[in-house]
Specification:
Layout lengths: L7 H21 L1 H4 L1 H4 L5 H24 L4 H25 L6 H22 L2 H27 L1
Helix pairs in contact: 1-4, 1-5, 1-6, 4-5, 5-6, 5-7
């Protein structure tokens, strides 16, 4: 089967799409848009730091996931973060009634990539690997969003 959930091309497309997503958020004004949710904008330097740390960790996880089967849960984690983020942007746009910067890359890049990884993992990975990746992805996205909101509110 061509697309294994840990296929290097597939896994490395996720951090690449994240880089494009950060650019869309930056240009679109996501740090300021978050003010509709938090009541105060996210300082741009904090946005840069949060995303620099996140992309470094995502690159490390992608590398680990493609090198060892025991790290396959990290590919599932990345895919889970991306799909949760895409859904959060969609929900944010619906709730606020305006474009949430990051929505385009979330829908066009994140959803197809993450769905492919997760569907393949569902068929190919051990259930513990799948469960660990899903839980870690949801927890990490929640943590990052919580940190961003806390920073915006300070």
């Amino acid at each position: 089967m061509r697309w294994h959930y840990r296929d290097p091309l597939l896994v490395w497309l996720m951090p690449s799409s994240y880089a494009l997503h950060i650019l869309e958020e930056w240009v679109g004004g996501f740090p300021e848009w978050i003010a509709m949710v938090a009541g105060a904008s996210l300082p741009r330097p904090a946005f840069v730091v949060i995303n620099a740390v996140a992309i470094a960790l995502m690159i490390a996880a992608a590398r680990a996931a493609t090198q060892r089967e025991s790290n396959g849960w990290m590919a599932v984690t990345i895919a889970t973060i991306l799909i949760v983020n895409a859904l959060a942007h969609a929900a944010g746009s619906l709730v606020t009634g305006v474009y949430s910067p990051g929505l385009f890359t979330g829908v066009v890049l994140y959803l197809p990539l993450s769905q492919l990884v997760l569907l393949r993992a569902w068929r190919q990975a051990d259930r513990d690997v799948l469960r660990r990746g899903l839980v870690a992805g949801i927890a990490l996205h929640t943590l990052v969003f919580g940190v961003a909101l806390a920073i915006a509110r300070t």
